[in-house]
Amino acid sequence: MIGLKGTLNVIDNSGAIVAECIRVMSGARFARAGDEIVCVVKRARPINPSIAGTQAAAQKVKKGDVKHALVVRTKKEMRRPDGRYIRFDDNACILLNAKKEPLGTRVLGVVAAELRQKNWMKAASLAPRIV
Amino acid sequence: MKLEICSFSGYKIYPAKGKTYVRIDSRTFRFINGKAESYFLQRLNPRKVRWTTIYRRLNKKGITEEVAKKRSRKTVKHERAVAGTTWEAIRAKRNQKPDARAAARQAAIAKSKEAKKATAKKA
């Protein structure tokens, strides 16, 4: 249940660390796992010009950037079709670009299976573990 | 239909019951109800909480005597020959009748007496 002002950990390698939700794209009040939101990057990894190669390429965002994001984990339990309820220990998201594709190249940590259900195939394929 | 077991209490979780909790380190825990979940999050040890299956198994509650004492350890003794004598000789000596033993002793005593007498005469 991520709403306005809700903070999420960013678990891809785009460079952002913490993002704050400013809009839930589906028009609802709260976003669940698998929903798209617009967020502001509140904390990001410092972009170091001296880092060369793949690391520099991956760091695409800085503090204050407004980006779309996809919620992948929520602390609020979500209901699965078999009646099971599942919840994670934190709220997490991955940043998206204008074409609704993941901004980063890697996802770190576990994501919810709702991504597959809601057709976020590219994001789900990057995830190391889906629960 | 796979029956899960509760990570805290050890009870069986049927479909549409209970909650699953995924920790940041990707470890999944299943709870049968809010009670088990609450105990778990308070970091209580199920081994010390009386109604859990772990406690009951550890303190052997509800298990009948025979099930507990199913296997008794029996050490089998093997008879073995020693360096000096064969196994037959050991057995023969052990199974000697007491009169036979007494007779043998008397014979040995008599023999040693004679030997002593002989040495005394010589000297």
Automatic annotation (TrEMBL), chain A:
<dbReference type="GO" id="GO:0070180">
    <property type="term" value="F:large ribosomal subunit rRNA binding"/>
</dbReference>
<dbReference type="GO" id="GO:0005762">
    <property type="term" value="C:mitochondrial large ribosomal subunit"/>
</dbReference>
<dbReference type="Pfam" id="PF00238">
    <property type="entry name" value="Ribosomal_L14"/>
</dbReference>
<dbReference type="GO" id="GO:0003735">
    <property type="term" value="F:structural constituent of ribosome"/>
</dbReference>
<comment type="function">
    <text>Component of the mitochondrial ribosome (mitoribosome), a dedicated translation machinery responsible for the synthesis of mitochondrial genome-encoded proteins, including at least some of the essential transmembrane subunits of the mitochondrial respiratory chain. The mitoribosomes are attached to the mitochondrial inner membrane and translation products are cotranslationally integrated into the membrane.</text>
</comment>
<comment type="similarity">
    <text>Belongs to the universal ribosomal protein uL14 family.</text>
</comment>
<dbReference type="InterPro" id="IPR005745">
    <property type="entry name" value="Ribosomal_uL14_bac-type"/>
</dbReference>
<dbReference type="InterPro" id="IPR000218">
    <property type="entry name" value="Ribosomal_uL14"/>
</dbReference>
<dbReference type="InterPro" id="IPR036853">
    <property type="entry name" value="Ribosomal_uL14_sf"/>
</dbReference>
<keyword id="KW-0687">Ribonucleoprotein</keyword>
<protein>
    <recommendedName>
        <fullName>Large ribosomal subunit protein uL14m</fullName>
    </recommendedName>
</protein>
<keyword id="KW-0689">Ribosomal protein</keyword>
<dbReference type="GO" id="GO:0006412">
    <property type="term" value="P:translation"/>
</dbReference>
From TrEMBL, chain B:
<dbReference type="GO" id="GO:0022625">
    <property type="term" value="C:cytosolic large ribosomal subunit"/>
</dbReference>
<dbReference type="InterPro" id="IPR000988">
    <property type="entry name" value="Ribosomal_eL24-rel_N"/>
</dbReference>
<dbReference type="InterPro" id="IPR023442">
    <property type="entry name" value="Ribosomal_eL24_CS"/>
</dbReference>
<protein>
    <recommendedName>
        <fullName>Large ribosomal subunit protein eL24-related N-terminal domain-containing protein</fullName>
    </recommendedName>
</protein>
<feature type="domain" description="Large ribosomal subunit protein eL24-related N-terminal">
    <location>
        <begin position="1"/>
        <end position="66"/>
    </location>
</feature>
<dbReference type="GO" id="GO:0003735">
    <property type="term" value="F:structural constituent of ribosome"/>
</dbReference>
<keyword id="KW-0687">Ribonucleoprotein</keyword>
<dbReference type="InterPro" id="IPR056366">
    <property type="entry name" value="Ribosomal_eL24"/>
</dbReference>
<dbReference type="InterPro" id="IPR038630">
    <property type="entry name" value="L24e/L24_sf"/>
</dbReference>
<feature type="region of interest" description="Disordered">
    <location>
        <begin position="93"/>
        <end position="123"/>
    </location>
</feature>
<dbReference type="GO" id="GO:0003729">
    <property type="term" value="F:mRNA binding"/>
</dbReference>
<keyword id="KW-0689">Ribosomal protein</keyword>
<comment type="similarity">
    <text>Belongs to the eukaryotic ribosomal protein eL24 family.</text>
</comment>
<dbReference type="Pfam" id="PF01246">
    <property type="entry name" value="Ribosomal_L24e"/>
</dbReference>
<dbReference type="GO" id="GO:0002181">
    <property type="term" value="P:cytoplasmic translation"/>
</dbReference>
